Amino acid sequence: MKKLKADFHIHTADDPYDRIRYSSRQLIERAQHRGYDVLAITNHNAVTYNAELVEYAHQHGILLIPGVEATIERKHVLLFNIDYSKERINTFADLRKAKTEDSLVIAPHPYFPSPLALQGKLKENLDLFDAIEYCHFYFSWLNFNKRGVQLAHLYDIPLIGTSDAHFWWQFHTTYSLIEGEKTISGVIQAIKQGMVTVVSSPLSIFTLWKMGMKLPLHLMADLIAYSGILGSRWAEIKARKYNKL
Ligand SMILES: [Fe+2]
Questions:
Q1: pLDDT tens digits for range 134-163
Q2: Domain range summary for the chain, segments of one domain joined by +
Q3: Which residues are in the CB-under-5-Å shell of ion ligand 1?
Q4: What fold does the segment set 4-203 form as a domain?
Q5: In angstroms, what is the span from residue 87 Cα to ligand 1's centroid?
Q6: Sequence-separated contacts (24+) of 97-103 with Cβ below 8 Å
């Protein structure tokens, strides 16, 4: 059986919380060029999944899985194939009720130095989690995935490689290969059975340097565009670039 190339943690311009510079359709197009078979768009507290997008992905040879990066008790949790609404799933107890055999829950970057990372909440609610993320953002000399890997090995929980892409450069840095049928339930069940391989390599110092150079420029460009300093024409150009017009 062909291994399915997959990424289960990606943000797009539909994200209501972060400003992302590529649309969901652009992501699908790029993923096809990179040979992906399965994608889940996981915007913050919003499910980006509809018949039109599913069909667009299908035309590009990609299975789209409904996903969301939900904030639960002020921590980030990746939910897939769950009937999600921010109002309905607010606590881990809510999630316990909403989760079904057909749904999947992944712990994203659980021990990264962020107030939104699960930290101790992961171990407290371990029964809820089907997999632990191996996040792209690490270096050979600094890797916050290590504690998650230890926990995964200790409790025999699958690891899953993702990009958590907010920028193009992050996409395709880390991904997963799934040995399963190319259907939503086939992929989810394969992950639950541990039929997944993480493909990843540490980021280079050069990447860190590029990030350092680009991030202030992006922030300044956004500030100019949305403060109207250069007038509405500039804002229009930016918006068009982001596929918001
Ligand atoms: Fe994320």
A1: 999 999 999 999 999 999 999 999 999 999
A2: 4-203, 207-241
A3: 69, 164
A4: TIM Barrel (3.20.20)
A5: 20
A6: 99/128, 102/184, 102/185, 102/188, 103/79, 103/188
